[in-house]
Structure formats: C-alpha cells, structure tokens
Design a protein that fits this description.
Order of helices and strands: HHHHHHHHHHHH
Strand content: under 5%
Distance between the termini: 41 Å
Shape: globular
InterPro entries: TPR-like_helical_dom_sf, TPR_rpt
TPR repeats: 147-180
Oligomer: single chain
Protein name: MalT-like TPR region domain-containing protein
Keywords: TPR repeat
Number of helices: 12
Length: 275
C-alpha cells in the first residue's frame, strides 16, 4: 500500500511541475465553464473530502490527486486531467472502500471522459459509480447521486445513438426521484442534509427532463415533448425552492428545444446534445 501512494505522489508532483512551467493556458477551449462547474459539483467536493481518521500517506495522496486534477481542469486541459485521474484511479481503486468516495471518483472520471467525447468509456466509469452509489447513506443522498449518474448514463447512450437505452435510463432516474418523494412523504421532517439533497435532486431532475426531451426530438417523437414539459411544470410548481423560477426555467426549456429542432430540420440530426 505504501508503494501505491509513493507512485501517486511521484506522479502528482511530476504533473504539478509541468503545470508550473507552462502556466495558465491561453486557450482553455469552448467548454471551460463546464469543466469549472464539474469541479464545483458534489462529486468533486466529495472527492476531496477525506475522513479525519484517514492515514496521513493516503490522505496526502487523495488530496494531491484532487489538486492536480483541479489545476488541469482550471487550465482547460481536460484530456490530461482525465488521463492523470485515470492513472490515479487505477492505483487507488483497490484501496478505497466501496461507497460514496468510489462513486464520486468514478462519477468525476466519467464526466471528464464524457467531455472528451469518449462516451463508451464514460459509460464504464458511470456504471461502476452506480454500483457504489447503492451503498451511499442516507437515502436522500443515495437517491440524488443515483439520479445524477443515471442522467449521465442516459446522455451517453443518446450520444451513441442508443436512444431506447437512453429513454429507459431517463425513466429509471425519474423513478428514483419519485420513489424518494414517496419515502419522504411518509417520513418525519428531514434533517438539513436531507432537505439539501432533495433540493439538489430536484435541480438534477430538471436536467433529466430536458435531456429526455432532447432525446425524444432525436427519435422523431417531438409530439411527446409536451408530456415531458408537463412533468417539468408539476416539478416546478410542487417545489418550494423552484416555484419562483417556473417562468424562467420553462422559457429556457422551450428555447433550447426550439433551437434543437431547427438544427435537426437543417440536416444536423443528432448533433445538438450540447446542453
């Protein structure tokens, strides 16, 4: 185990020295905002949350790995960030216990791989993340993480043209959310963490509905988009946090799908899955 962490530390320091020599990238690419948001997600934050009882060498390896990945993403170098994180993951995967930390490591790696357009490879990481997400507690966090990962799996299927698999996975994500809603309605008033996780879940479900509607457009089933929109309306009206954003969210939803249909009508079918 000590040898594994020596390898991680050596690799991290090597990459950091390269970063310092090169300095900030002048051209960070068109998707830098997505990369920076990626590091602000619960996945990224939990990746660098190390339990206090973690052995010092292991803690140093985890934090240094996260620091290198964050620095590379800030520079817009997603390719190198993904490569480094994949190498670190290969070393650490047998040392990190199953559960939230492994789920978030794989979720972050899947996100970077997806950003690079390597959807089949991203699916592999997301599936591993999903297996570990089933071990997450409390249930509110487990459901939020599950909805998040299922949305990304469905998007990868859609990019690969596997629309039926995508639709089935979107529906799984929605069912996870609905099941949690049923659980929450029968439970005592939730703790702050439960309320936070539910709020995050509601935001993620908005994304699920949008991505689902985009996939329906790609399947020449635009007539069914109105049904998805109605479910989005119900979500917005039923959420104390989102209720005031209903008009803005629906305007954005309609605008994105209108632009997608215009592109599809111009012969670019399957190309507008950038949101």
């Amino acid at each position: 185990m000590a040898e594994c962490y020596r390898r991680i530390m050596a690799m991290a320091m090597k990459v950091f020295k390269i970063i310092l020599r090169q300095g900030p990238s002048r051209s960070r690419g068109p998707h830098l905002a997505n990369h920076q948001l990626l590091m602000k997600t619960p996945a990224a934050r939990n990746f660098v949350t190390v339990p206090s009882r973690t052995p010092p060498k292991r803690k140093a390896g985890i934090l240094l790995t996260a620091g290198v990945v964050g620095s590379l993403l800030y520079m817009g170098d997603v390719d190198r960030a993904a490569k480094y994180h994949a190498e670190s993951y290969a070393i650490m995967k047998d040392l990190v216990p199953p559960g939230i930390q492994m789920a978030e490591m794989c979720r972050l790696l899947g996100g970077m791989t997806e950003e690079l357009g390597k959807y089949a490879a991203a699916l592999s990481y997301y599936r591993t993340a999903m297996k570990n997400a089933k071990l997450v507690t409390p249930i509110s966090r487990r459901c939020f993480v599950g909805v998040d990962i299922l949305d990304r799996i469905a998007e990868c299927y859609s990019h690969l043209g596997k629309f039926e698999d995508a639709e089935r996975t979107f529906n799984k994500a929605i069912k996870v959310y609905e099941k949690y809603q049923g659980h929450a309605s029968l439970s005592q008033p939730g703790r702050d963490n439960d309320r936070r996780n539910q709020a995050l879940m509601e935001i993620k479900v908005m994304h699920v509905y949008l991505h689902y509607a985009q996939t329906l457009n790609l399947m020449d089933r635009s007539s069914e988009v109105s049904l998805i929109r109605q479910r989005l309306v119900q979500l917005l009206q039923g959420s104390p946090m989102l209720r005031g954003e209903e008009t803005h969210v629906l305007d954005q939803f309609d605008d994105i799908l209108t632009r997608q249909r215009q592109l599809l009508g111009g012969g670019n079918k399957g190309s507008d899955k950038s949101v």
